[in-house]
Amino acid sequence: MPTSDQAELTVDLAALAANYKTMQKNAGRAETSAVVKADGYGLGMAHIAPALSKAGCSTFWVAQLNEGITLRALLPQAVIYVLNGVPQGTADQFAAHNLRPCLISRAQIEAWQSHCRANESLPACLFVDSGFNRLGFGEIDIAELMATPDIFDGWELCLIASHLACADDPKNPMNAAQLERFRNALAVLPDAPASLANSGGTMLGPDYHFDMIRTGTMLYGCSATGREEGALQPIASLRAPLLQMRHLSAGDTIGYGATFTAAGEMTIGIASLGYGDGLSRHFGNQSPSPMRFTIAGQPVSLVGRVSMDSLAVDLTHLAQMPQTGDMLEIFGHDNPIDRLAHQGNTISYELLTSLGNRYNRLYK
Questions:
Q1: Domains by residue range for the chain, with CATH
Q2: pTM for the predicted model, two decimal places
């Protein structure tokens, strides 16, 4: 039996730092900031953020106030932006933890302004909706702001930011349209540094860089446009031990629902990882081709449904049969996460942020 029945998630912090340096080169003169929301894309913000700080990063982005408070305890000197803005009644907490909200509504601006006037002038980002239609101020909203003479008084507008919807597709005309809308917004808003490009946007070229890029997925070794694999280092690998080998005969079925039936004699391995660990149940019995993992660099196919705590792979074709305790690589060096995500009709972001808490986490 294996020495442990836990799956292993290994995170290479040196590779993370190398990817940050790569993004710095791509960003040219713009500052390279890091997105560490969702617990550092599921890889552990407590390890990810200090490693990035050590690599030279001084500005970070999270989505929620509680994430910002956690990050502040890790990085006392960093600049930290909170993308969801300042919810009602939380301005005191933002001030106490030196966090910068991305103001997304007039009500948020007024709440921030009121707090600052009663205490001291504090910095905040204004988030512009350039066509994503998610958060921020559209063209009409900006015109209404500019019609209010004192709306920017009493607080510091430290950054104007927006977000690209189609940066993963360099040929999509939406990119140029959003760039034009963002420039139009900057032309009428008070003068301040600007940020538009995420990871994919950085790869669109200098026109999209402005004063700061916000790199997320490419830091973690995932492709943003499908063209950067050679420039990035994978930083995460996920492996699970084989708990048992089983020999099947023609007609035998595997797993819940008996959705897979053996056509002949076959050998399967049962690995200690399932949807309770973040590998979606819908990955089972992929059509037209099965989901592929690797053992010692050799591809093996997922057979049957993914269970909560285990899954089955077909070992029949292997020249050398693995042993109980050998590790099945879900993604990593031999099975890149972008390839696995493509096979599962999802994205690498979702795979990483779905990772559960049962792994034996190893940080190199």
A1: 13-221 (3.20.20.10), 236-363 (2.40.37.10)
A2: 0.91
